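[User] I wish I could look at a protein chain and see how it folds. I have put the entry right below:
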Amino acid sequence: MFLVECVADLTPERRRSVLARANRALPEVVSQTQAILDRLLESPEYETAREYRSLKPNLSPSDLLVTEEEIAASNAAISPELKKALKVALTNIQTFHEAQLERPMWLTEVSPGLIAGRVTRPLAKVGVYIPGGRGAYPSSALMNIIPAKVAGVKEIIAVTPPGPGFLARPEIVAAAHLAGATKIYKLGGAWAIGSLAYGLNGLPKVDKIVGPGNMWVTAAKLAVYGEVDIDAPAGPSEGFIIVEGHYDPEIIAWDFLAQLEHDPQASAVLVVTSLELADAVAKIVAHETVHLERAPIINQSLENAAILVAKDINEALDLANEYAPEHLQIIAPDALSLLGRIQNAGSVFLGPSSPIPGGDYATGPNHVLPTGGSARSFSGLSTDSFLRKMTFQKVSSQALRELTPTISALARAEGLIAHAKTVEIRALKDQD
């Protein structure tokens, strides 16, 4: 059975172990990924054909694009239930992200004669990585493409790994098409990221690359950062669950297991205020795991998991803020009132009817979230992720004349004489 521990009894070493997350970019992964990108830049068609020769001999760039026929076949292949689910999820995700669009800060009078403001402009081209190796994730297509479309991005290029027959998974193709991808390409890993970043293999060079992936995808995104923008560094999925008082242990056990079945490196921490509940959950987790299809994955990810007992809700919340989880679920008598106590989290799920998988698929907020403690400084994907904020100012001659001493003094203090002179000369000529 899973070991139940008390928060107060954790040694400094064990506390660090609980707070630690799986390494997102091991040194050997970084070096191997950089080697792939170097080869790709040197000879993109040869390097890509070499990687996919077992799936499609004599591969050419024209084979990478998902055709209209493949899109139609993918739409026909998925079930009516999945089609309906995709449409419901799309509506909720789109509604939430449309509400994020901000009003331009238009014509603010900073001081008499000085008008300034800020307007937004969408990125021109973005690349969206949709995982398709270990499993099919159509929800990732929706979550990454919809906010870009809402923001006004004109070209949204989706990439996803090909499978047998050099075909992309039909669920992913159907979801990407429904969400509004301009084009879909069959490419995965560093080959996809490099092609998007540098404009190789017939793919357009994009301004930003978003979307989750394994550690090789993450390493590739970090390697091309600067050539293009990227979203937050992504690592294995993680969940932090807090339960105050007594609650159904079977439900909590399934909440806990749901966070562990993603990936062998996934993490989950459950903090409860009842030792009885903790013991009950641990027993159910041990019993149910052996019956699950992903039991081998869960058995590995349990190494990154913990079930803890806190003396009260405040101790649990303090540990959550220190952990800075991707997903934070709080089941408490008045969970909404605790939101003000949360400083660090990617997304917060409040109350007994707000399980984390709801946000993974259909409640509307984005499921592309910061991991590995980066929720302390990064936000989840949003409409803002695809917008640039451009400021402007219009200054009257009188306002400039009044600011001239300030600008001149600062410019001369920095040794930038021309900066000072171009302002000073205007003041002199205005006086003539």
About this structure: The mean pLDDT is 93. Residues 80-98 form the longest helix (19 residues).
